[in-house]
Amino acid sequence: MTDSLANVPRFLVVAPIGRDGELICGLLNRAGYRSERVQHVRQVEAIDSALLLGLILTDEALLRGGIEAFQKVIRAQPVWSELPSILLTSGANEPSYAMVASRARMEIQSLILLDRPVRKEMLLSAIQVAYNSRQKQLQVRDATDKQSRSDEALRKSEQLAVTGRMMATMAHEVNNPLEALGNLLFLVENSGSLEEAHSFGQLATKELQRISEIVDHTLRFHRAPAKPGFTDVSELAISALTLFRGKLRERHIRERIKVERAFGYCSEGEIRQALVNLIGNAVDAMRDGGNLRIHVSPVSINGVEHARLTIADTGAGIRKEIRQSLFKQFFTTKGSSGTGLGLWLTRDIVRRNGGKLRFRSRTETPSGTVFTIYLPAVPDVQPSQLRGEKIPQTGRRAASTV
Ligand code: ADP
Ligand code: MG
């Protein structure tokens, strides 16, 4: 290969015998396509797929281990690539070539067979088809790359938004017990008896415990491992709820928590974030007080142990017209205080951990919304395995599954 071709997308011509290779390359060049000639299919393995426009092979290239090398090249292609390949074959006249050609055709999907001797126009039109198909594949790859990069950026930005909210919440939460501590210390200083001072001291210790609890749970949120593992989901639910205690009190929201030990095979950090999203939404929905119900229990779905996590609020509910849009990026009804990424991310997280997210909601009195997460306790349960599976009902009304 000449160095000038090293990073240029090109056709590779594998024609080990005679002048075929030279002629094909000449034809390609005159038609405006870059090409390179190699002696064996094995040499193709070293070339980055994005630089391969297609392969043009002659029968001889598939002999002496050529077909195995060809299969290897095809298997090593990235998901976006279906490498266009053109085989020039004399199979019609030579039985041994006919055998390799038919084997190649059976095993390699993207193969075009052309009988030798090939007319120039035939070869050029096959090359044109191969070239167009490759351009389409590269466009799809670029679009997919762009999409996953922007999804990743959105995930990060929602994580940052959550971090910001958690920090504001922590400062706020710590402030209350700090104020109480200040008052209690003042009382200790001015107390008339040792006994009185002692009881104020005990209350002060409780407030200190509260501060350290808040700091501890906030730090857990940031330190939680991202790698999946066998995780006690009930502990996660309690920990996530701890972060909202102050807000619940302020808004006169009663919490009803009923947790049984239930395990999920999941990323602790991700599920923590999903829970904080769902609890945050429930709290936002109850501006004037209400009940926040959190249930965790183990359930068996199709013989597979799952942790079921329910977060229910008695807020205004979700109007039918917007239910379609809930999981779309940037959909929010909270103006500038919302990001519209919480549910999108939550669904993504639950799916990535092999689980399922469902919700039901009603706007008529008594109004409210219930989100339920099912997390399998074993690794590698694909969401599709749960699809169509009867998931135990968590309430009377039919649920939407997303
Ligand atoms: P954000 O909370 O930033 O608005 P989300 O993706 O978390 O973004 O939620 C999208 C929208 O879904 C919210 O703006 C709200 O309208 C609606 N929503 C989510 N959870 C609830 C709930 N528990 N009760 C009522 N509406 C909800
Ligand atoms: Mg939200």
UniProtKB/TrEMBL annotation:
Residues 169-379 form the Histidine kinase domain. It comes from the Bacteria. Gene3D superfamilies: 1.10.287.130, Histidine kinase-like ATPase, C-terminal domain. GO terms for molecular function: ATP binding; phosphorelay sensor kinase activity. InterPro entries: CheY-like_superfamily (IPR011006), HATPase_C_sf (IPR036890), HATPase_dom (IPR003594), His_kinase_dom (IPR005467), HisK_dim/P_dom (IPR003661), HisK_dim/P_sf (IPR036097), Sig_transdc_His_kin-like_C (IPR004358). Transmembrane segments: none annotated. This is histidine kinase.
